[in-house]
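Bug report

Summary: structure tokens for tRNA(Ile)-lysidine synthetase differ between web form and batch submission.
Environment: batch mode, default settings.
Steps: 1) Submit the sequence below via batch. 2) Compare with the web form result.

Sequence submitted:
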Amino acid sequence: MTGNEGGEATTAEEVLSYWFDGDMQELHRTKWFPVSGSDVQAATDADITSRFGTLLATAETRALHASWTSRPHSFVALIVLLDQFCRHVYRHDADKRKAIDVLALELATQFVDDGLHLHVSVPHFVFALMPFRHSPTPDRLEHVLAHIDGRETTMLHDTDLLSKFRRTTVQRQSHLRVPNHREPGEEFDILERAAFLHPNEALLLPKHPLVPIMHAFLTSMRAGSDACPAIGISLSGGVDSMVIAYLLVTLAPRYNNFKVVAVHIDYLNRPESSAEAAYVRAWAHDHNIECIVRPVEECQRATTKREDYEKLSRDIRYTTYQDVMARFTIPGMCVGHHRGDVQENVISNMMKGQSLLGLNGMTPSSMVNGVRIWRPLLAVNKDAIFDFAHTFGVPYFKDTTPQWSTRGKLRRQLMPLLQNIYGDGYLNNLSNLGQEATECADVLETALLGPVLNTVQSSGLAVWIDLTLLCAQPMFLWKEILRRVCHERMGERMIRDKPMGELRVKVLKPNFKASWITLKKQTKSFVTTQKHLVLFREPVFQTVFPPDLYFVAETTPLSTVGPWRIQLRLVASPHTDAQVLEVSYIYTSMD
């Protein structure tokens, strides 16, 4: 800083010194590219306003044009003053910034027309051309890229800054080229980041941390073999799934060119969803990815009960996965879950009263609704995924998670609060807790859960389990076993904690006797003398029948149920046997 340090600046040298002197990384962090809305940005705004506010006001009147444009360095200072400093001074006055952008663009155009951009340093070059980025048109950005090409052939220093300038210029150019897939007048700003091609991708991509992780995943799945000729990706357009898709198609040549197939579910709940679907389809086509878009027209979130909507939309999603996987011989469908999702899951599952064994909620490979789900980036932090996308130009949509939703409140309110209270380390603690829960579940699965579940027997009428195998176990293992019996073996709702506790107390009594027990209102259950729990399926004791129920045959085929052979016969009401049928009696295994 010159002799006027700390006071109001009056010279071009003070502008250049403030903006360009010092450590490059510190300049990036505090002045050039501070995080939007951060305390650092606010402090820089205040500092620039205090030091350069009066000088900026003078520049707005064109009073500095004649003297400052006479030399290349002071010309750069004038452009920086009008193009950069105005963004700090007038942070909350968009109209003011827009008016000053006109002046800055005029100066930048003159600067280039005079050929001055060829004779200044790379940092001065970048910020002298920045007004073209702030008032972009495709032609202007094409010219900027051409000037960057010219500098790259001769530069020896500041290559990182020029490379960043190229990437961000291409991103801005891509934003202008996003096709409008809606009706005239209905444009949607759907992209958080637009696509671009890194000029040194072939050299840099193999060095990125995500690449060896994906190589390990593809090798373990035998990608490109007869067992895995294609891999699916659930492509929402978010950064996680887009990065996985990009990695899959980029690495496919190393694995016998396996086919990449994307599935995009368009829920039609937001006005821009169809534009997103069209963009995903076009991006996939450009990258030689087969893309199947499935619009959900059967239900809408706004007009359907939440529970019904979630079930129906989930069924549609997984049915679509199954159909696509069968069509293209896909053994697994990739999803974009990462380490942060596991951490959110641990918090959410704890609050919902999830079992300790299911606290993690996610594993690298699992079966969900009959679909093999793969999560190749589950151990990766979100920052690494963002870094890959920003480095190699992988586009992705804006985060549309509603702030009022449970997930939105968790991300934007609860987790920042926990971080403020417990520090950054709390996230690692969540990950460790989830991992330990998974390891505990694996041990119990082998030592206890698996052997007990293997004894479970079932028929069309009921499922039965030997409770003597659980008598010595704590309550949470009863809950885990019976949860899996209800969900996985019967496809029905879980037994609530209170009746389950009553069942355990009953079975453990010294004077235990066989009896009926009410575990769920919708059905009946029976515990035998041998302490075998028989859970009848919900339709077995149905008391309300559809009004149009009728028999299409006079007799049914002979069926075997335990020691009995049963055949149903239609009896006319005047028949003498019909009177006998007016009295019903339930036969149990005790009879």
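Above is the batch result. After comparison, the two runs are identical; trailing whitespace caused the diff. The chain has 21 helices and 15 strands. The chain has four domains: 12-177, 192-336+376-400, 340-361+401-444, 445-541.
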